[in-house]
Amino acid sequence: MKNSVNSTFYPILVNLERFPCLIIGGGKVAYRKVSSLQEFNANITIISPRICKSLLELAKKNKIRIIKKYYSKEFIKDFKIIFSATDNPEVNKNVRVDCTKEGILLNVVDNPVLCDFILPANIKRGDLTISVSSQGKAPFYTKEIKKKIDAFISPVYSDIIEMAARFRKQLLSGSEAKSAKTKAKMFGKFTSENWEKILTENGKKSSGYYIKKILKESNLY
Questions:
Q1: Backbone phi, then psi, for 32, in 5-degree steps?
Q2: β-strand partners of 66
Q3: Using an 8 Å Cβ cutoff, are 114 and 2 in contact?
Q4: Which of 14, 190, 38, 214 has its CA nearest to residue 105?
Q5: Residues sharing a CB contact under 8 Å with residue 46, sequence separation 6 or more, in sequence order
Q6: Confidence tier at 173 by pLDDT (50, 70, 90)
Q7: What are 22-68's pLDDT values in tens digits?
Q8: pTM of the predicted model, to two decimals?
Q9: CB atoms within 10 A of CB 183
Q10: Architecture of domain 1-119
Q11: 66-74: which pairs have CB atoms within 8 A and are 24 or more residues apart?
C-alpha cells in the first residue's frame, strides 16, 4: 500500500541487532546505506547481481553478507526490515508489493511514497544520537541542518553522555534518592555544570571525581 504525500513518519530508535537488514542493490547508494547502518551494529545482507568495490571489500572483512543474484521475493522471507536501493522503478515497485503481502517494513531510497519508514540525518557521539528529519520532503536541507549541529556538538559529548549515565546509575542506587523531587534536584545539579569545559581541560579520567563531588555535596554518596 502506498503512503499519501501527507503521510507523517514517527521517529523511533530500533535495536537493529535483533532485526537483520536486507539491502536490495549493490551500488554507491547501497554502500552509503550500509555505512550508516553499521554505526548502529546492524546485521546486513546485500542482494544484487552487480556489487561495487566498496561493498566487496566489506564482504571480504566479513562485515556484510552478499548474495550476487537478481531480486526475487524468496529472499525477503527471513527479514523484517528491508531497504530498496536500486535505480530500477519496477524492482522497487515489486519489492513494495512483496513487502506489503509479507508485512515487512520497507524503505525505498528517495521515494517516501513507497516507504513504511524513512531515515533521518544522524549526528552520533558515542551513545548520543541526534536526528534531523523533514519527513522526507526536503532531505537536502536537513543535511545542511545536520552540518550545523555537527559543528556545534564536540566529540567530548560522547564522554559526557557516558558520565551522565554513570551519574544516573549511582544516584538511583542510593536509597536517599528515591523521591522524584530529589532526583530532579540532582539531575539539575549535573546538567548545570559545564561538562564540555571540565572534561576538555581535565580529561575523561576526572569524571569519577566530579561525580563523587556532586553526590557528596548533597550527602548522597
A1: -60, -40
A2: 46
A3: yes
A4: 14
A5: 22, 23, 25, 26, 30, 34, 55, 59, 64, 65, 66, 67
A6: confident
A7: 999 999 999 999 999 999 999 999 999 999 999 999 999 999 999 99
A8: 0.83
A9: 14
A10: 3-Layer(aba) Sandwich (3.40)
A11: 66/26, 71/24, 71/47, 71/95, 73/98
